[in-house]
Queue: 2 jobs
Job 1
Amino acid sequence: MVELFVGIDLGGTNIKIGCFDSELNLLCKTSTPTDADMGPEAVVEKMAEAVEQLVAEAGFELQEVCAAGIGSPGPARYSKGIIVNATNMPKFKNVPLRQMLSERLGKLVVLENDANAACWGEYVLGAGKGVEDMAFFTLGTGIGGGIITNGELVHGWDDNGAELGHIIIYPGGRKCGCGQRGCAEAYASAASTAKRAAEAIEAGAESSLKEVLEKKGKITSKDVYEHLAGGDELAREITDKTAEALGILCINVLHATEPKRLVFAGGMIAAGDVLLNRIRDYFDEHIWALKKETVEICFATLGEDAGIIGAAALAKRLYEHNKGKS
Amino acid sequence: MVELFVGIDLGGTNIKIGCFDSELNLLCKTSTPTDADMGPEAVVEKMAEAVEQLVAEAGFELQEVCAAGIGSPGPARYSKGIIVNATNMPKFKNVPLRQMLSERLGKLVVLENDANAACWGEYVLGAGKGVEDMAFFTLGTGIGGGIITNGELVHGWDDNGAELGHIIIYPGGRKCGCGQRGCAEAYASAASTAKRAAEAIEAGAESSLKEVLEKKGKITSKDVYEHLAGGDELAREITDKTAEALGILCINVLHATEPKRLVFAGGMIAAGDVLLNRIRDYFDEHIWALKKETVEICFATLGEDAGIIGAAALAKRLYEHNKGKS
């Protein structure tokens, strides 16, 4: 009998599911939409049916699945397997998701923060391979984070560790959605990057992005990077500030847990080397002189599969841990 | 036969040594001076003799000592037991201190960063008792740090984790001795607190500290807090900035590893509640609104013994770990 592991990425609009062998090779994957009206029972049923169908399509039996992992947004009590709230699913309040799916499938289930799951995926099979200490930043609408120290994910006392986007970079600076001022997220998320560009144009800055704003009524971070490639000066200034915030964020995380590798993921990394190199420049410009730092600042390599890979890897880890104890 | 553990705090001018029972009760302690000319062999011999004498004075036999721990300043390769450099002892270059003392005493020895050793002491027996996740800040000439997450010290990939004083709070701000600008240490160490006061007076600020500066030629952080108690406005401003930097530092460390307790130690805590309360005020003022934080910001309770207690506790832990394996 083969040993299979299932990785589930519970998003606001979709549930992504992957089926993996014991070497964590992705055998097949699927995606199924969720909607805001669904209650926990309906979501669990949908998840379970999708898992059953996926395993069958891959030519295996459900009994060959050893364990499943779920990556989910918070706030949650991950260690207890409970979703406290789900922004996109109002019917989710204190849902014991781990137990519900475990009982429905008759399998061992692990629940993890979505950014942590993706971080663990990159650590095991992606940009973090070969190191014991890593930091992970997802540059999306917001900035999520993950930290691995001594080969373990940092959870924090209340399951809210590694909220790296909310490290304050510029005290008294831009207001962040979290209520703080000057967070990394208020400068360097995709949403903030776009917003800073729009604000500058509205304040009178000259830029080729002006036409985009007038035509579409908004600017995206993708627009900023496209116009940067086209030589637009405002796009360069906006990108520089994004990179400075991220360079200082790297320094601050370095002085906390000293990761060997700092990995950026999320939609913004489509900007490519022009962004990555500026982050490295600012890191080098601001970092101390007490010792020569040889940490690596790089992009994630697993793309959108990082979440399901990480969730499956955590499931495998839990399964093997439990097997070792019995 | 009783089981004893020895804790050693290797400082720039003194070696402090404590002898502990298996419950980590301090049985007796001693201190012996070092001088800059001493080479590694002389320091190890001095350390070993002091241990032997201390154990004898306490009425025990050396064979009752199970293990010893050393807390030492870096840079060092703690995991390998090697001191790379010792600022105050120029003859220390790549010294395998752990092995040397282990061979001389015939005992198991562990080498740890001095701030980490003190952090571990507070964690086991002091202000960190009862939590699994803690951050530790020593407010001395500089600012040292320690982080415990999931009950383990964070070392970082290159043994330079938890350099919390060098987290950047004000980018482009005051120059720090490390070469960065705007580090917490550049505002909130004892030396920086005193220096900011002196600079303000030299720039023309009115203050009762002016007389101190004129009379003694310098100001200490102790002077600042004494004059704060006396109602001096400049002392209040200086203390406020110290507290703001430390409050933001607490937030940034919270968003990294989410400690339940943030513990301040070092000479500066003699300032008392007036400082502690301002740090808490700034933490509350700047912290996010996404959730109500219930972390505790407090002072260390073990005083100068934290280092020897932590070193002995680490020795005990290593001994028990090795015993468990055999």
Note: The longest strand of chain B covers residues 26-33.
Job 2
Amino acid sequence: MSRWEPNAPARLAQAAMELYAEAGYEETTVARIAERAGLSERTFFRHFADKREVLFAGSSELQDLLVGSVAAAPTSASPMQVVSAALQDAAGWFVDRRDFARARQAVVSSHAALTERELIKMARLATALAKALRERGVEEPAASLTAEAGVAVFRVAFERWVAPNERRSLAEIIDESMTELRTITSS
Amino acid sequence: MSRWEPNAPARLAQAAMELYAEAGYEETTVARIAERAGLSERTFFRHFADKREVLFAGSSELQDLLVGSVAAAPTSASPMQVVSAALQDAAGWFVDRRDFARARQAVVSSHAALTERELIKMARLATALAKALRERGVEEPAASLTAEAGVAVFRVAFERWVAPNERRSLAEIIDESMTELRTITSS
């Protein structure tokens, strides 16, 4: 982390996403991504392990945010309230990232290996959330069920949020999906 | 499928599971599995692509069973009732497979690549169930949320069912987990 490269990860991610859309994911090299971002390959590798990780670096950030939010929730909140509030925090994090999320979704969903990677990340997220709930004193199986239900709501809401003609905010769609889940499970 | 080899897939699966437990998953070869089952390697490859697929052949069978059950449910049933009934059908399928499921779980959970494969299979199962629900006329996002919630219940229940000292039936644990999910989402 020697030279001053303002906002290097974001610039690299933006460049990668442009190239994945223009030239295709397979065809894009790290050299081209770095060039487009006006940075060196060396800088790329300081931030990402490979061109795939440009797509998944955000997943770790998202997981840290959700886990942190669960840990910081008031003790009076029910497990589902805790997870709902965490998902709303995540929605806040995504507010300015819709275009990026759409471009990313297009790449991920058109490559089986990337889709599998995404599924694994989501499953890991549920495991991490369940752990964070247990650390708040929520017992099993409630911790795992709440975490899995929360991730299910997030996945479904996120997919709708990135759909071409969707204009509502992620916060609103999460809220609606959470209500829908409540209706479903009680009928 | 020329020669008469009664129950070859089950014999191969049983032999594989024994060897995975005794000698380890990595160390076990298809040749050894076939030998233990008293069958040829050729017969092994008639039923399984490789030694990993011995562990996952059941996942496809399970998916077909669940999708079939959803498709055959009475039209009057709510989406969650349909999925609950399908999970109970799955529980019936597993009744005589607890020892096998425990041995399998031990192998899968101690290998990261196998655990990832399992997560992918479960995610695919949710996708297949959502599709089966849409084909019954359930709209999105209800179809996906119901499917994801159902798979979450199944995963959590299954993990408890294979736990060392658990004696209750899978049917009972699924039922309890479903009730728990209802409580969680409404609080």
Note: The radius of gyration of chain A is 18 Å.
